[in-house]
Design brief:
By secondary structure, the chain is an alpha/beta fold. It has helices at residues 3-10, 20-25, 47-58, 89-103, 123-126, 131-137, 144-148, 151-157, 167-170, 172-187, 199-213, 252-260, 264-273, 279-291, 297-310, 313-327, 332-337, 340-346, 357-360, 365-372, 379-387, and strands at residues 15-16, 30-35, 62-67, 118-121, 189-195, 220-224, 237-238, 241-242, 352-355, 391-393, 396-397, 415-420, 424-430. The strands form three sheets. Strands 1-6-5-2-3-4 form a six-stranded mixed beta sheet, with helices on both faces. Strands 9-13-12-10-11 form a five-stranded mixed beta sheet. Helix 11 (199-213) links the parallel strand 5 and strand 6 (220-224). Helix 12 crosses helix 16 (313-327), helix 13 packs parallel to helix 15 and helix 15 crosses helix 16 (313-327). The longest helix has 16 residues, at 172-187.
């Protein structure tokens, strides 16, 4: 597989230094991508760079994932107005361990192959580097004029960000440049990859290598485009915030729903970027989808591939089961198959009431649903809807408006799901 041609076809190549393709054709090459460890989970905004590493390894090259334990402490000036908080070493170690576990879903770290992936942390080589040593050994090679010419710096100095640019952030490109120099010397790493907003920082690294080791030192840069939605807005953000890879922050159900709900134009781009499906299969899926967009074949396959890759096949199947509860025909058995995390995720946002066990068990449905809670405006409304077959409890039609609520009706021993008509759901938690 030709790595550069693969990226071009998938819409994942933005900029590349001359000579990069020739370098990769010579044989196995080592490249790295930097990842910010300020959280203990990646989010889908990281995925394009991670997928670049995945394709890089598939093409027979060696990927390095660099977690920026040192640089992550100070902030990157590429558009962010607030500096990052200082991490303790314990938090940093925890975050790095969590990120490596997530990356292992995409990269092979454990094989004996010469191109097995490695995780490196720049804190390891920066923690004992004194300021005076850094100024003497690194700072002397790069002029302030060179650093000021970078777009990421210009934007901050021109007032596009309220808070300007601190000296700490200004040094970021030197720190990142030194990472490249260190990996070049210790790991024979000749290529740095990242998002297009990192081009300035990456090329500072290639320049530092050239000025430190001589003009014959061959270091290269390659970036992917910043992924956006069809309306041009930032990819990966929802009204609730980032879509995370860790189920503690974004459940597999909500993760699957994100991909399922992207538009047709986005789905055609994303299935190339965020899956490893082969060209012929993707072309076939796109053609089939265009012939009948209403079936949403692309979105469904995209959701399946990414959910299985990030989580598991079992998580995908549960997310699919959960989706059918809201948007397809489902039964009480369908509800009982869900774990509590998925169940609550599906009904997050529906009106939610809490009652005591004494209020619920043994009560008449009409008293519980129209008085103790406000699932219905009145007993009369509930009586009329029940008689017309428009009220369900746990996905089963309510036989009578005054039906007794029993302990065995409680899902997971504490939930009742009330449905009014086809689309109105209410969740009752029994304490």
């Amino acid at each position: 597989m030709n790595f550069v041609e693969e990226l071009k076809w998938r819409g994942m190549l933005h900029q590349m230094m001359p000579g990069t393709d020739e370098l990769l054709k010579k044989g196995m090459t080592t490249a790295y991508v930097g990842i910010d460890p300020t959280a203990d989970s990646l989010h889908i905004g990281h995925l394009c760079s991670v997928m670049m590493l995945r394709h890089f390894q598939r093409a027979g090259h060696k990927p390095l994932a660099l977690v920026g334990g040192a640089t992550g402490m100070i902030g990157d000036p590429s558009g962010k107005s607030a500096e990052r908080n200082l991490l303790t070493e314990d938090i940093l170690r925890h975050n790095v361990a969590c990120i490596k576990k997530q990356l292992s879903h995409f990269l092979d770290f454990d094989s004996d192959a010469p191109n097995a992936a490695e995780l490196v942390n720049n804190y390891d080589w920066m923690k004992d580097f004194t300021f005076l040593d850094f100024a003497r050994e690194v700072g002397k090679h790069i002029t302030v004029n060179y650093m000021m010419a970078k777009d990421s710096v210009k934007k901050r100095l021109n007032g596009e960000a309220r808070d300007g640019l601190s000296f700490t952030e200004f040094t970021y490109q030197l720190l990142q440049g030194y990472d490249f120099l260190h990996l070049y010397e210790t790991k024979n790493c000749k290529l740095q990859m990242g998002g297009s907003d990192q081009w300035g920082n990456i090329t500072t690294g290639t320049e530092l290598i050239r000025r430190t080791l001589g003009a014959e030192a061959d270091a290269y840069a390659l970036t992917c485009p910043l992924i956006t939605k069809a309306d041009g807005k930032k990819f990966g953000k929802t009204e609730q915030g980032n879509v995370w890879l860790d189920r503690r922050y974004t459940t597999p159900y909500k993760f699957y729903q994100f991909w399922l709900n992207v538009g047709d134009e986005e789905a055609e781009r994303y299935i190339k970027i965020f899956t490893s499906l082969e060209h012929d299969e993707i072309d076939s899926l796109i053609a089939e989808h265009r012939a009948d967009p209403g079936r949403r074949l692309l979105q469904k396959r995209l959701g399946e591939e990414v959910t299985c890759m990030v989580h598991s096949r079992a998580d995908y199947e549960m997310a699919l089961e959960a989706s059918n509860i809201l948007f397809g025909k489902a039964t009480k058995d369908s509800l009982l198959k869900l774990d509590e995390e998925t169940f609550l995720s599906v009904f997050d946002g529906v009106p939610h009431f809490e009652v005591s066990r004494d209020q619920a068990v043994g009560a008449k449905a009409v008293d519980l649903f129209a008085e103790a809670t406000k699932c219905f405006a009145s007993k009369g409304e509930m009586r009329k809807l029940t008689q017309g077959g428009g009220v369900s409890l746990n996905k089963e039609k309510l036989a009578a408006f005054d039906q007794e609520i029993k302990a065995e009706d409680l899902i997971d021993g504490k939930y009742l799901l009330v449905q009014r008509g086809k689309k109105n759901y209410f969740l009752i938690t029994v304490k």
